[in-house]
# Entry
Amino acid sequence: MQSILIIGAGVAGLLAAQDLQKRGFDVTVLDKGRGLGGRMATRRINIGERTGKADHGVQYITAYTPRFTATVAEMLEERILQPWNVNGDAAATPPKRSRYIAPEGMTSVAKYFARGLQTRLNERVHTLRTETTGWTALTDNHEYQADALLITAPIPQALMLLETAEQKVLSDKEHHALSSVEYIPCITLMLGLGDEYVSALGKRKMRFEGTRAVMWFADNREKGISPDVPTLTLHTSAEFAKEHWETREEELVPMLLDELSDYISNNLVQAYSLHRWRFSRVSKPYPARFFAATSAPAPLVLAGDAFAADTPIVTRVEDAALSGWAAAEYLCGV
Ligand SMILES: Cc1cc2nc3c(=O)[nH]c(=O)nc-3n(C[C@H](O)[C@H](O)[C@H](O)COP(=O)(O)OP(=O)(O)OC[C@H]3O[C@@H](n4cnc5c(N)ncnc54)[C@H](O)[C@@H]3O)c2cc1C
# Structure
């Protein structure tokens, strides 16, 4: 096996690609998005001529395992990450787990993970073909071929994609096991604010709100991402997202602004952007670090944050990293 095609330039896809490329494989990473990072991304918010930025999905990173802790340490040295010191944490007994934010925005972490790789953005794979010699992935403009395929898209999207292959590539048992994974939805509201905005969050940069509607919100200027234009990121609870999945934006935005009325007045909001994450985080993971199909004609592996048997509560960037590395290790031995 010489070449490997990876669908998904999120954490799992990029870190798997790094390991595989280092071991001498010819690796290509495809993503339908305009930018790298998948759910770990930073968005621009324009107010007139000025541009602010807001972390869109991932807000901070934690590290529990030795390898990911070492990766975080590397990024601290490169100044891609910095510790997020929540007031009082230092004095807490036992000390709280460290959290890390990216002062240039979470996209900078994805760019770091993608260094030296062949990544093709704006390439949505819509059809797969397979035979014993390998895989072909079709996008609107290109056909990509490789000996093996690694898919890191959320599992429901990966399953839909696999159904486009003419042959059956998963057994009923495998399909059933993968379909049992559950995700929670989340709605993100990003706000661009007037200069008069004074952060009510102070050095904490973020606030875990935990109300029925708002799970948390973060001040991107305090985080250092958006020094010139104050911006906030708000994430709703899963319950609120489920209840309001179909609610029109014009109704939803005032509803969420109401929830923040203790922190910002409506007349400070100059621009906003709303995003609905159907597959935001995994509440019921697959009980292994990756999945390898047993009956596909050519090697097929699935990875991503859904492959995280022992994660606390919901899946995190670290789960995606561990899954990507485990999938790469497996593919090296195929
Ligand atoms: C709102 C929100 C907040 C979060 N906050 C945190 C946090 O603070 N800390 C934390 O640790 N984790 C957080 N997470 C979870 C974290 O984002 C994920 O665990 C992690 O980023 C998942 O990475 P991944 O590589 O598995 O998947 P993804 O990042 O989803 O990558 C999959 C990629 O596949 C691409 N793709 C899918 N289908 C196709 C196709 N057909 N063709 C081409 N490309 C395709 C997608 O565009 C995507 O880029 C948060 C997630 C969300 C949504």
Notes: Residues 1-36+114-181+285-334 form a domain with the FAD/NAD(P)-binding domain fold (CATH 3.50.50.60). The mean pLDDT is 92. Residues 317-332 form the longest helix (16 residues). The chain has two domains: 1-36+114-181+285-334, 183-281.
